[in-house]
Amino acid sequence: MDLGIAGRVALVTGGGGAIGQAEARALAEEGVRIVVNDLDPATADTTAEQLRDTGFEATTAAGDVSDAAQVPDIVATAVAAFGTLDILVNNAGAGGEHLGRPVSAIPLKSWEVILQSHLTSTFLCSQAVLPHLGLDGYGRIVNTSSMNFTGGGRPGVANYSAAKAGIVGFTRTFAKEAGPNGITVNAIAPGYVETGLIAGFTDAQRRVVTTQNPLGRFCRPDEVGALVAYLCSRQAEYINGALVCIDGGKRDFYWSPS
Question: Which of these is catalytic: 138, 160, 192, 254?
Answer without folding.
Answer: 160
